[in-house]
Design goal:
The protein has helices at residues 2-7, 29-43, 132-144, 172-187, 210-219, 248-256, 274-291; strands spanning 12-16, 21-25, 57-59, 64-72, 79-89, 104-109, 115-120, 156-164, 193-205, 223-230, 233-241, 260-271. It has 292 residues and is α+β, with helices and mostly antiparallel strands. It folds into three domains: 1-53, Elongation Factor G (Translational Gtpase), domain 3 (Alpha-Beta Plaits, 2-Layer Sandwich), CATH 3.30.70; 58-191, Ribosomal Protein S5, domain 2, CATH 3.30.230.10; 195-292, Alpha-Beta Plaits, CATH 3.30.70. Strands 3, 9, 10, 11 and 12 form a five-stranded antiparallel β-sheet that branches. A hairpin with a 6-residue loop joins strand 4 (64-72) and strand 5. The longest helix is centred in the C-terminal third of the chain and has 18 residues, at 274-291. The radius of gyration is 25 Å and the shape is elongated. 27% of the residues are buried.
Length: 292
């Protein structure tokens, strides 16, 4: 693929760490088919194009409390940690957590978007503050791979407000495990929600095919934001889930006999409809079961 890029710089190849896929960007379906043909015929490399995965996100919609105790005894020193955790949806400017006294706040701006706000609310030393980083690390591990689809989590506030430790058996690893499991269990009781990327789509087309283009967009869960004219073209402004835009270039060409063009850019993340969320969860659980 790197040789193909050197020969044709308009072909862009990237490996997505998040999606665990190699993504190929071309100028259209024909361009990609030509690249596939050349690789197979000249280099005897079998190529299969599949639909790119969607970079979903996960979050919560309500507050949940969880108590998790990690205890392991295997002769000699064991492991012990107990964590009392509250998680809740985070948004800018929200009030301090009710009923808790916040001692320390850490905010993590996540590379995948959104924030984790980590509040240390323990009064009286039931857990030594030196275990704070271990608990936070356990939470971050679960946020990197959410329980619904394995997608990153975002915009969550975590409060550690109580717990227990042992003078001999408590250590960083024990509290990391306890923090991780407390977060995972709380997440499942906090109105967990899958978010999908929504794109702003601008389509320029002839007036006689405008109805067909609009009808096609409505089948793609699009929300029409407005219409305008630009020179001899009609302009359609819409917001469309990325999951519905696969193959749109070919579909638009077919609908308009090649007399239309479009641009798109990311607008926001929004909640996935309930029926689609259920399918995504079932597919993820089935895939995880097959791998195990």
């Amino acid at each position: 693929m790197h040789l193909a890029h050197e020969e044709n710089p308009t072909l862009i190849v990237e490996h997505s760490q998040e999606l665990k896929q190699t993504i190929i960007h071309g100028q259209g379906q024909l361009h990609l088919e030509i690249i596939k043909y050349r690789l197979e015929k000249l280099f005897d490399i079998k190529i299969e194009f599949i639909q790119p995965k969607i970079p979903y996100r996960e979050t919560i919609t309500q507050e949940a409390n969880e108590v998790y105790r990690h205890k392991k005894q295997s002769g000699g020193a064991g492991q012990f940690a107990e964590v009392h955790m509250r998680i809740e949806p985070w948004h800018e400017g929200m009030a301090d957590p009710h009923g808790l006294s916040v001692r320390h706040v850490e905010e993590e701006i996540l590379s995948t978007g959104g924030k984790l706000v980590f509040n240390w609310c323990i009064v009286g030393g039931s857990i030594d503050s030196r275990f704070s980083n271990a608990i936070k690390k356990g939470v971050m591990m679960k946020m990197d791979e959410g329980p619904l689809t394995g997608s990153p989590c975002r915009d969550i506030r975590v409060c550690i407000f109580d717990g227990k430790m042992h003078p001999v058996d408590s250590n960083d690893m024990a509290f990391q495990i306890a923090g991780s499991m407390a977060f995972k269990n709380a997440f499942s009781h906090a109105g967990a929600q899958i978010l999908e990327p929504i794109y702003d789509l601008t389509v320029l087309c002839q007036s006689e095919v405008m109805g067909d283009v609009m009808g096609d967009l409505q089948t793609r869960r699009a929300i029409i934001m407005g219409m305008d004219s630009e020179g001899h073209y009609q302009k359609i402004l819409a917001r469309v889930p990325l999951a519905e835009l696969y193959g749109y270039s070919s579909a638009l060409r077919s609908l308009t006999q090649g007399r239309a063009k479009f641009t798109r850019k990311i607008a926001e993340y929004a909640q996935v409809p309930t029926e689609i969320q259920q399918k995504l969860k079932e597919n993820y659980q089935k895939h995880a079961h097959d791998e195990s």
